[in-house]
Amino acid sequence: MKNLKQSVIKGIAWRSTVDISNLILQIVFTAILARLLTPADFGIVVMALLFIRFIKMMTQIGFGTAIIQSQDITQAQISAIFLIQISIACFISVFCYLSAPLAANFFNQPKLTELIHLLTWVVLINSFAFPQIILQKNMQFAGTSILEIIAMIISNTIGIIMAFKGYGIWSLVFRQMTQAIIFSTGIWIIAKWIPIKPQFTGIKKIFNFGLNMYGSNIFYYFSQNLAAIIIGKFIGAETLGAFNIAYNLAIVPAQKVQSILTTVLTPAFSTVQAKLDQLRKNFFISLFSLGIVFIPLMIGLSAVAENFVLVVYGEKWQSAGMFLTLLAIVGLFKGIEHLLRSVILAKGGAATIFHITIIETTASLLLLSLGSYFFEVIGLIIAYITVSLISFTLTTIAAQNTIKDNTLLFRTTTRTFFAAGIMFAVITLGYYTLIESHSITTLCTQIILGGSIYIVFRIKLLTKEEQSLINKMPLAPILLLTHKK
Q1: pLDDT score of 174 more than 80
Q2: 12 Cβ contact partners less than 8 Å away, ≥ 6 residues apart
Q3: Which end of the chain is more exposed for a tag (fewer CB within 10 A), N or C?
Q4: Separation between Cα atoms, residue 44 and residue 23, nearest integer Å
Q5: How far apart are CA 252 and CA 386, in angstroms?
């Protein structure tokens, strides 16, 4: 168990480092590109990527999660799944290429056909990054983490150079392609994995688990992207570009949380899935550790959203600030929900996730359509928040039933939400009643003041159990100025 604990700590450390680095660098690179390109440029590329993401999702049968979850799968069976995965990717890529005119007609953007024809290669190239599943299962994250950062830096640098040279929208496309090529090539070198003679017998259980995840992925795609699809179809590329900037700032942190949890905690939870007490304890620690940082981060982002967007991206992206204020709440619930899903999947609950996602997608289709019809983008975002709350509630119930503890989420996050709420009130009221100026000085003041208020109140609210957990975190007693009770 000690080795498992050490692997989890190292895994979280690596994934947290790379994901935080990626997030910061991505904000910097996107801010540069946002000043070189127009909201409409971003919007058109988002339309292409919406179609590409759907096609890419069609290739993700859920075999990766199934391989990680299984404790008795053989190398020959993994090789068989690899061949199946590549075959599906090839077929889907051809379908994507041929379907490009349909996407262009749907969004009424003829330029999309060329963009999708080029981005189709990204789908195929990404499918060859299969060895990362082997590394995740073995909880080996150092090489993958470093490779992600290298691929992201090189691809964004190329994108910025192309934007300076006047390539416009194509700079965003080649940024995507370069990142896929570097990562999918490098992962084979890092993993040093070579497929062996495939064994197709005995993979029925893996296949069934994967199909449940596949169905869930299809519905999950629409639940996450329906808002952007509606904006692109009925409102326009410029608004979609601004919405996408806000969406990436609000939802990408949640996706980074998902990356950490999927790659580190799912295999860790799966290892102790038969020991309910140990699973419950590990889940409590994970939820507390995530919430004490992630909850104030997202609530704080909502509070400084307007000033942040104006300072970082410029005046032409002002509408993105309003979107970000609301979308940060969605990102908050999504981030916690990803952890809840990890414990459900660790117990083999892919079917449960599938059913919740069906409900979420159905609610999204109804509420987002009504919200956008009557109140346009703001109504759509409010509907998005409502759907996220529904999904979050259902996932919470399922996760707590899995570990047989119906109060764990409440006990773990209530004090954090209270301290973060006070922080939000002070920052928001102070900004709109006293300052109301857009500058980097104001933004830094908001961040420092908000962080200080949260830390002070959260320390005062620490329970003995939480204090014990805090004291075991690297540097946390110093950084949080904790005290002995």
Answers
A1: yes
A2: 260, 264, 265
A3: C
A4: 23
A5: 19
